[in-house]
Design brief:
Elements lengths: L2 H19 L4 H6 L6 H13 L4 H17 L3 H14 L6 H14 L3 H14 L4 E2 L2 E2 H12 L3 H15 L5 H15 L2 H11 L13 H13 L10 H13 L3 H6 L7 E4 L5 E2 L2 H5 L1 H4 L5 E2 L11 E7 L7 E8 L12 E8 L11
Parallel strand pairs: 3-8
Antiparallel strand pairs: 1-2, 3-4, 5-6, 6-7, 7-8
Helix pairs in contact: 1-5, 3-4, 4-5, 5-6, 6-7, 7-8, 8-9, 9-10, 10-11
């Protein structure tokens, strides 16, 4: 058991014991360990008693008390003070904020389960309020999304964030994370719906994910494609069929095995571009009886991608490397793990390795 966890358990039990035993003069409990701020704290507690029934004035006093307890390192006393106050004053309109301070304090202590408990308690039991222009419920939802690992619970937080605070968030980013969470649950229809909505927000940037819009669009297009007939379970069989189409100069057969989603054409040095429909339809213009292919796949082929060198095409660049990739798409177990002919690299390879990662 870690030292931090042991320390947290002892602190929690101490606070719980004090709360259970009660105290005839609870103010005296807070005066120890605050150093030179003891007199100031006493004055604040006197003001605290005098502001009963005046919630806004009392809120200001409570903030000052909390500030002293926090700055002096008396986190357990701070938590006890606020939770006891909320329990004894259930109608105080600022209770959501008081418990937010408790939740954040537990979070700083590494007591994440208790932090989650209080964040959820605020959402379920206390009306929202604005503090310095910020919604307490909004803050709770943002923190819970980062603290909770259960995808089923997290989905509800994302949905509530969108429903209640849609104007304050990057909706595209939240829909992206909502889709990823649906993926964890295996809810593929809902995941694709969320991904489709994400695509409606072109300015959204997902931190740490490059070319995210292209990747999501390919996934959604693949999912929505009605009849996927160009893939094969065996790479060897797929390559064999493509070779046969080239050997027979059979344009229709060749076209049959080109991916209908995200088929690309590019030189080795340039950024990839999706092949337009005209290129795919006119590939027969470049196919001729002189086109030949290597007996074996290129040496840089691996378990996820493969390259077949061909040459003799009726094109300004006569050498093409046909690119095959293994499909990663758990949403469709029948196609997940299949192979597809995904694109063409023009020209001789300028180096070992390369291609798509």
């Amino acid at each position: 058991m870690s030292v931090k966890l042991v320390s947290f358990i002892i602190s929690f039990l101490t606070v719980s014991l004090i709360a259970f035993q009660g105290c005839s003069k609870p103010e005296s409990y807070y005066y120890e360990g605050v150093g030179e701020q003891k007199d100031e704290l006493k004055n604040l507690f006197n003001l605290f008693e005098k502001t009963e029934g005046r919630s806004e004035s009392r809120f200001i006093v409570i903030q000052q008390i909390v500030k002293i307890l926090y700055s002096s390192g008396n986190n357990d006393k701070l938590n006890y003070f606020l939770t006891t106050y909320v329990e004894n004053n259930p109608d105080d309109p600022f209770n959501a904020y008081h418990l937010l301070v408790v939740a954040r304090n537990y979070m700083e202590q590494g007591a994440y389960p208790l932090a989650v408990l209080y964040f959820e308690r605020i959402l379920k039991n206390y009306p929202d309020l604005l503090i310095s222009g910020k919604s307490v419920h909004y803050i709770c939802l943002k923190e819970l999304i980062n603290l909770v690992s259960d995808p089923e619970v997290k989905v509800n937080y994302y949905k509530e964030l969108i429903a209640r605070f849609g104007e304050e968030i990057d909706r595209g980013l939240i829909y992206y994370y909502l889709a990823k969470t649906y993926e964890e649950l295996g809810e593929w229809d809902l995941a694709m719906q969320a991904y489709s909505t994400f695509l409606k927000y072109p300015d959204t940037i997902v931190p740490g994910v490059t070319d995210v819009r292209h990747k999501v669009k390919v996934m959604v297009d693949f999912y929505n494609y009605k009849q996927i007939t160009w893939t094969m379970e065996s790479l060897d069989e797929l390559v064999k069929q493509v070779k046969w189409a080239i050997y027979r100069n059979d344009v229709n057969r060749l076209r049959r095995y080109m991916s209908k989603v995200d088929f690309f054409t590019m030189s080795w040095e340039q950024k990839e571009t999706i092949a337009d429909e005209q290129f795919i339809q006119n590939i027969g213009v470049f196919l001729n009886p002189r086109v030949s292919y290597s007996s074996n796949l290129d040496r840089d082929s691996n378990a996820r991608e493969a390259y077949l060198k061909t040459t003799g095409w009726s094109y300004r660049i006569i050498t093409w490397y046909l690119y095959f990739r293994k499909i990663h798409f758990p949403a469709d177990p029948e196609k997940h793990g299949d192979w597809e002919w995904a694109g063409i690299y023009f020209g001789d390879k300028p180096f070992a390795g390369g291609g798509r990662s």
